[in-house]
Amino acid sequence: MQRITPPGITPVGPYSPAVRVGPWLFISGQIALRTDGSIEKSSIEAETQQVLENLRAILNAAGAAPEQIVKVSIFLTDMAFFATVNSVYERFFPEGKYPARETIAVSALPRGARIEISAIAYLGE
Hints:
The protein has a single domain, classed as CATH 3.30.1330.40. Helices cover 21% and strands 29% of the residues. The chain has helices at residues 44-61, 82-89, and strands spanning 2-4, 18-21, 24-30, 69-76, 100-105, 115-122. The relative contact order is 0.24.
């Protein structure tokens, strides 16, 4: 098992940002934390984009890319954000290679975030 913590990604609790086990990469839920520790909350679009950039940083640190993600879980504090999040999310994956996914409404997220995304990637043998 290999723990992956890229520069600028600081967990807000006792967990690893990602763990690689064999060909699998398990990425912990990411919120819109910037490298300076502040959270992006100017708009749900900007917040979603920051979350995806955090996912990209973790993937890069593991030598992986978005198209290797096979499963995503999205947590939203308000389902009214669903369409807006989808419009940002769909640009993250090349050529529409979307992973399996669920979107779950929750009452609250860490640090007042409105969106959190976790993922599983297959990196191959």
